[in-house]
Each structure stands twice: as structure tokens, then as C-alpha cells.
Write a structure and sequence with these properties.
Structural class: alpha+beta
Number of helices: 2
Shape: globular
Length: about 110
């Protein structure tokens, strides 16, 4: 089994995932399960984990998760634009999307086919 996992992690990274996911047009509202990705060596991906909407104002926000390879410790990202350390990001996404460790350019929002 370890040999299989070593092979899987060698070939299934951000480089291949970026090419397999479907691009989402700019200005589109992110959905739970969407991936914001920069494919490559190194590359990085974050996952839209949750969405919230203020029913009174219609304002929407989303949470992001990230991990590193192998995905052993997944955690919620803080939004560096929020002084109080809030993890919520405003939707729709304002590009470039700045996270604590990566900045993603427009065109980085992808969806599973």
C-alpha cells in the first residue's frame, strides 16, 4: 500500500488537478467544493468549505481550507484583509485573492466537472 500512495502523490498534484478541473468565469459566485488553484511545481490549492449569507443584506461570505502534501492536517485560513482575524472572505471573489501564504490571480477558481 505505501508504494501505491507514493505513486499517487507523485502524479496527482496541483499540476494535474489544475488541468482536470473546469474553469469558472470571473465574477461567478464561489460554491462549496470549488477549488482555487495555482497548478505547478510548486503549486497550491485551497478549497471553498462553507458559505454564509446575511438574509437582511444579501451579503455572502465563504471559508477556505488548505493543507500540504500529503493532506494530513487541513485547516481553515484566516483572511489577512480582516484585522480581527476573521476567516470569512467576501463573495463574489475580489481578484487577486490574497490568502496568508498564497496570492491567486483571476482565473484560479475551478469547479469539479
Amino acid at each position: 500500500m505505501p508504494r501505491y500512495m507514493t505513486g499517487a502523490f507523485s502524479y496527482a498534484g496541483t499540476y494535474s488537478l489544475d488541468r482536470e478541473l473546469k474553469s469558472v468565469p470571473g465574477g461567478t459566485m464561489p460554491e462549496i467544493g470549488d477549488v482555487i488553484i495555482k497548478g505547478g511545481f510548486p503549486g497550491h490549492a485551497v478549497l471553498v468549505a462553507d458559505m454564509a449569507e446575511n438574509k437582511a443584506t444579501g451579503e455572502r461570505r465563504f471559508l477556505l481550507l488548505q493543507s500540504y502534501m500529503p493532506a494530513q492536517d487541513i485547516h481553515v485560513l484566516k483572511n489577512p484583509a480582516e484585522r480581527d482575524g476573521s476567516p470569512w472572505y467576501a463573495a463574489p471573489i475580489s481578484w487577486p485573492l490574497v490568502t496568508p501564504e498564497w496570492t491567486f490571480p483571476e482565473g484560479s477558481l475551478k469547479r469539479w466537472p
